[in-house]
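Q: A reviewer asked whether we had any structural model of the full assembly, not just the individual parts. We don't, so I'm hoping you can provide one. Inputs are below.
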Amino acid sequence: MASKISVNGLVKSFGHLEVLKGMNVEIAEGEVVCLIGPSGSGKSTFLRCLNRLEKISGGTVIVDGFDITDKQTDINKVRENIGMVFQHFNLFPNLTVIENIMLAPIELKKSNKEQAKKKAFELLKRVGLEDKADVYPTKLSGGQKQRVAIARALAMNPDIMLFDEPTSALDPEMVGEVLEVMKQLAADGMTMVVVTHEMGFAREVSNRVIFMDGGYIVEEGKPEEIFNNPQNSRTIDFLNKVL
Amino acid sequence: MSIVGLLKENYMTLLTAMGKTLELTLLSLVFASLIGLLFGLLNVSKKKWMHVVANVYIDAIRGVPLIVLAFFIYFGIPLATGIKLDALIAGIISLSLNAGAYMAEIVRAGIQSIDKGQLEAARSLGLPYGTAMRRVVLPQAIRVMIPSIINQFIITLKDTSILSVIGFPELTKAGSIIIARNYETFKMWAIIGVMYLIVITTLSKIAKALERRISYGK
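A: Here is a predicted structure for the entire assembly that you could use as a starting point for your response.
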């Protein structure tokens, strides 16, 4: 199958500090890939390079056939097709829940107000929050905020969803509701790249687990291979600490 | 003459002059806000030249006293170019340029106070930088900026008195003309001081009430 995301020799430096030291990853359509690894290993930076929230220092990243490292590529067009969910939700506090979801489709003229509203309600229903449409984000719990953030990321009908530690800022009792929505998305065939510390989710939902450390991919494979029979000593160390 | 007598004799002149003061303040603040928004946005831009342009303007204005700027614009420029400026126009230009630099700093600080995750989330949806600023970052930044804008409003209102030196008939100029006639220095300056005090206190109370009204979702 053709790659949905194709990363070749990706390098990312912040000043003199090289955070990603040449990454090669192919992600197929409909695949759910979990990135695990210790903090500072470059997982989030890697994810943020996939929609160029981080300026890419070297190598190529091809998403949906568009080389996003090429200056000629209209990055905004590519981003419409890549939803992103952040650790700290980043909902817009000046807009209501439904306005948060409708903002991009309306501003980017994807749909008129009526269509956008209808779509937003569908998405809210999907994440179980249709009764919160007209409240401001400050009134929501963490889990509800993250579900709205997922709905917002889905509003442009993306083919790819990026999740940057989506449950790390949540109280433990709220993690489940967010993972449930993500599982549903995975079951619907969404291509997903998930940076996570939720090993249960990685084991259960993903097609592939990538273990990163020190800016490299140390080991990757099917979740049962990585979790049951890790090969590299650093992977073993990490999994011993977190499991 | 008693204070009441002075007020009876001069209230029309004083109120008209207060009107001129407010006119000058409001017009200048409108222009200063536009200048401030423009240079504030340039200042937070990632493009280096924009940053430099904004800083040159802000540093130049902040490094020159308002009275010198006003003399330069009202007396200097007409001599060099032959274009005679009306005192109101020269006053508005001086005050706008002056307050604009401070507004630019207020805008910059306001934008920088907003978590950068807000811009990232907006950009990740495919919104261009300008749209993300207009719909997401600036509406939040303006809320943060309101107390500083009120403060700048008050400073600009008081700064109008400096423009009495170019002969613009605002409140301070009107006061000195009246005093030149009646020699009631103590009482007249007291009256004028109280007039400024009343207007500024009232305006800042109104602004505070406005500030409370536009807080959302809380």
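A: Points you may want to mention in the reply: The interface with chain A takes residues 115, 117-118, 120-128, 131, 135-136, 139-140, 143, 216-218 of chain B (CB under 8 Å). The radius of gyration of chain B is 21 Å.
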